[in-house]
Amino acid sequence: MASKAEKIVAGLGGIDNIEEVEGCITRLRTEVHNADLVDEAALKAAGAHGVVRMGTAIQVVIGTDADPIAADIEDMM
Asked: Which residues form the active site (predicted)?
């Protein structure tokens, strides 16, 4: 079974689409190469409470485990 971090990576369009990621209290703040590859339904299925899009800057609202998930994603990069 895929981890929550792996599911979020998939929802963000894959590891190659993620330019940077950081945890910020309850959100993952990410910068992606191609915002069209971001699948909000997949992110919500992975446990996201919401997704905020601002061009290629994507914030994934996931709760208090944002920092550990960001660290897991950084380890994959």
From this structure: 24 (phosphocysteine intermediate)
